[in-house]
Amino acid sequence: MIIDEILPYKELFDNSPIAAAILDARTLKLEVANEGMLNLWGRDKSVINTGILDFMPEIADQEYPKYMKDVAKTGNKRQEEGALVMLKKNGVLQRLYMDYSYIPIFGSRATPLAILITGTEISAKQLHMMAGDEYKRNLRAMVMSAPVPMCVFKGNNFTLESVNNYMLDLWQDKQQRNIDALKYVFYTGMPLEFEEGHINYSCTALRDEYGNSTGCVLIASSKKN
To answer: Worst-scoring range by mean pLDDT, 16-20, 42-46, 74-78, 199-203?
Structure first.
């Protein structure tokens, strides 16, 4: 029986601070789950020895059953951060954001015998931090790969956060920063074109999810003779 082969794992995660559960890889039946995972799912111990879609039918139309089956078929683990999961808790369907992993357990066979599931619910604050970090990485990548001179000034003190080589070559080690123009764009949110040091610039405000200005993007279009 599968429970005999996964028994060495049971005591380990029964006392684990991490929410964890083990599914039969073939049937997706819940073999064991610790208190943390049951609380995360909003279920109790009565769901043990039940198929995951039987006690959690709300995920049937989400991608997670497919991911579990892929792990069972390929033996490759699956993990994700900040994933949106729709779960029914106390009779109410809720939007939850989780870090999770599906890890195959092979036992004595070459194909996965079971799937170890771990999960952590993350707060809205943590999610915004993650989204902010991702946004910063994407913005910097855009600036550095842009085929035109470009840079980003951050905050209302206009700290230079990212600048590409085209802009550095144009400045020739003399940073051009028209504070009045940057302030106008930052505080009004309106784009502006201006000339500084014989260079034509266009400036646009950066905004957060609430519409507040967080900085400015500066693009140089040409240099006057």
So the answer is: 16-20
